[in-house]
Design goal:
The protein has 678 residues and is an alpha/beta fold. It has 20 helices and 25 strands. The protein has an eight-stranded parallel β-barrel, surrounded by seven helices. A seven-stranded mixed sheet has the order 1-7-5-6-4-2-3, with helices on one face. It is globular and about 75 Å long.
């Protein structure tokens, strides 16, 4: 009897736990908000949106609300009217109250009841973020670009008080190594706004191209400085530059989404395009090759990734050039910070130049590190004199005692980079390579996704989420932490789809890290909420990483022979539109590599594309050359009912102890028009 009673109690306990788990998952489904709000009390019931719903505003906050109303109209067809605030009427009330207590500048309160939604904030930014929370509480189909029929548009009742942990919640887009259109940049600003990210760091110059129009120096946007050489066979859209009118357009677009753009002009290293067109600014005469080219070709030309020439830190014409450039940059970007790079400078080039060593003696500079600090101080002063705050990568901290304190630091290099910056009294943004570099693998180094495999670490979404920028800092040091940022370097993920797969869903983890207090973060809880966002990303046509990456098949000792034979793989499910295709053979284990002698793509049994180069699938994973075990095709016409097959001629070399992944990925010609089906 005692045993039966004990067993019954145990069963009831298990049922209670399962019921609680179900209730928690159900709540996460109703309130799948990212980033997680500071405080939220879920309530029964819901607010129903209908064509008669009225929007009320009390001050000139119309632009923030109009975007929300436009979003609703696109998907629902409801043309909601905006009227002057009337607290006695039912509807959605947006109340801007600059005297609002206990609500920080970017914060808001949200009280959702079945007959009313009351939004309060002390700033237009707070109201805007409240609209993004409401957007996420609506069904994911609110993101559709066409009217959705027969749908219920409801928002679950709740009381929310919300504000960010950090004021810098950033994403860096490298537009130099690969150029991206204004439309691509705008799409990223849209998605950043949805997740309350507020800083877009725009990396506009590097060795692979100068990407911003400077009217005083027109050669900077000549073909030599902005277009990949024809021998590199790069698609035309990967080259180019932004006109000043386009820059203004993007800045205004970002401002409307409460995003500040931080431009970067990277000097004195990473200045190859500048030196090609204005050679008098270089520290030496080296100008080979006399064109710009993709990052992975650097080793073939220079033996490493770093240019054999830099801006000359001893020449006054260099500082005049930079003063002129930053004058125009400041005129385009109204934000507080201007980034000048300062990273990865080849000081050995300076040491080899007699005129540089003479300059150092004359100015009592004992080391090239001190010369770097001299350069940084001059550039920092140029930027400060224009009413802005200079910012550089944490390479410039090597001579911290001589660095102007108004210079902010972007801490990327080294596990203790953020600590080193703030303990020396510098404002700092936390963006360490591990885990905030999103060109680095997120799951499997052999899954075919376009990550920089020269890095040995894996930046999983869990590592990204669990990163705490302020860990190990004193309260005083923590005050100098501006926030957190993810970086996307586009040397390898050049296609927009590849870039998206590297960024998402990890960027959502960064959004929560920047917004939500560390004590309120929980990865399991985040993962439950994240599951609800894949539908939303699908609606937005934003690709994201899926388990297995681009792997579609595997080979093993049972499937290979020492003689060449055909390997066929059905890739029909992976062909879903027109675009560029990359197929890969990743050796993962065994004693014998796989030799490939050409690959074909077939549609309904007919060959439509061929890449007949010869390659070996081996252990090479470096960045210093194009991986030969990648094969490239184009699907120029897509037929939805067709069958698509890859046919390759392969053999296992010296035995059949060979294992590997076959990967396949199609990148649409037109970004964000379609995403890969799940």
């Amino acid at each position: 009897m005692f045993y039966i009673k004990k067993t019954k109690q145990k069963c009831l306990s298990i049922i209670a736990i399962l019921l609680l788990s179900y209730q928690l998952e159900a709540q996460e489904s109703r309130f799948a908000i990212i980033p997680k709000p500071s405080e939220m009390i879920a309530q029964n019931g819901e607010f129903s949106l209908n064509p008669q719903t009225l929007i009320y505003i009390n001050k000139e906050n119309r632009s923030e609300i109009q975007e929300f109303v436009k979003l609703i109209k696109t998907a629902t067809g409801f043309d909601l009217k905006i009227e002057q605030e009337n607290a006695r009427k039912k509807g959605i009330h947006f109340v801007l109250d600059q005297q609002l207590k206990n609500v920080p500048q970017e914060g808001y309160t949200l009280d959702i009841k079945s007959d009313n939604i009351i939004v309060k904030a002390s700033s237009a930014t707070g109201l805007y973020y409240a609209t993004q929370t409401l957007r996420q509480l609506l069904p994911s189909t609110i993101e559709k670009q066409t009217i959705v029929q027969n749908s219920r548009w409801t928002v679950p009742n709740a009381s929310i008080t919300d504000a960010p942990r950090y004021h810098w919640r950033g994403y860096m887009q490298d537009a130099s190594r690969t150029f991206y259109s204004v439309d691509v940049i705008k799409k990223y600003l849209d998605v950043m706004a949805l997740y309350k990210m507020n800083t877009f760091h725009w990396h506009l110059t590097d060795d692979q191209g100068w990407r911003i129009e400077i009217k005083k120096y027109p050669k900077l946007t000549s073909e030599k400085a902005t277009v990949f050489h024809h021998t590199t066979h790069q698609p035309a859209e990967r080259s180019g530059f932004y006109t000043q009118e386009q820059i203004k357009e993007v800045v205004a677009y970002a401002k409307a989404r409460h995003i500040t753009i931080v431009p970067e002009i990277d000097v004195p290293g990473h200045s190859w395009p500048t030196i090609l067109v204005y050679p008098e600014l270089g520290v030496n005469q080296n100008s080979y090759p006399n064109h710009v080219f993709p990052f992975v070709s650097s080793w073939g030309y220079w033996g490493n990734q770093f240019t054999p020439n830099t801006l000359d830190p001893t020449k006054e014409i260099v500082y005049q050039f930079l003063d002129d450039v930053f004058t125009e940059v400041v005129g385009l970007f109204p934000g507080q910070y201007i980034h000048f790079g300062g990273d990865e400078v080849r000081h050995d080039l300076w040491e080899k130049e007699p005129h540089v060593t003479d300059f150092m003696k004359k100015n009592n500079l004992k080391t090239v590190t001190e010369l770097q600090s001299y350069f940084v101080k001059r550039v920092s002063h140029i930027i400060s004199s224009k009413g802005r705050k200079p910012m550089g990568w944490n390479d410039i901290l090597v001579d911290a005692k001589n660095l102007p304190k108004e210079t902010a630091i972007m801490s990327w290099l080294g596990a203790d980079a953020i600590k080193q910056a703030v303990k020396n009294g510098f404002e700092s943004v936390a963006t360490p390579t591990a885990p905030m570099y999103f060109d680095i693998t997120q799951a499997d180094r052999d899954d075919g996704t376009m990550s920089d495999l020269a890095y040995g670490n894996i930046n999983t979404i869990a590592r990204v989420y669990q990163y705490d920028p302020s860990q190990g800092l004193s309260p005083e040091e923590e005050k100098l932490v501006l926030g957190v940022q993810a970086n996307q370097w586009t040397a390898l993920p050049q296609e927009v789809k590849d870039m998206n797969v590297q960024n998402f869903p990890r960027l959502l983890a960064v959004a929560e890290t920047g917004w939500t207090a560390q004590s309120k973060k929980d990865f399991s809880d985040f993962s439950l909420r994240l599951d609800q966002h894949y539908d939303r990303l699908d609606e937005l046509k934003v690709d994201y990483y899926k388990s297995g990456g681009y792997t579609v098949a595997k080979w093993s000792p049972a499937t290979v022979t020492e003689q060449f034979k055909e390997m066929t793989i059905d890739v029909t499910k992976k062909v879903y539109t027109t675009g560029r295709v990359q197929a890969g053979f990743f050796f993962t284990g065994g004693k014998n590599f796989l030799e490939i002698d050409g690959v074909e793509l077939l549609e309904n049994g007919k060959v439509i594309a061929v890449d007949d180069h010869h390659a070996l699938a081996d252990k090479f994973r470096g960045t210093n050359k194009i991986k030969p075990f990648f094969y490239n095709f184009e699907v120029k016409q897509y037929h939805p009912n067709a069958t698509y097959i890859i046919r390759a001629l392969v053999r296992s070399v010296g035995g059949t102890d060979s294992n590997g992944n076959f990967t396949f990925n199609l990148s649409p010609y037109q970004p964000f028009t379609v995403s890969e089906p799940r």
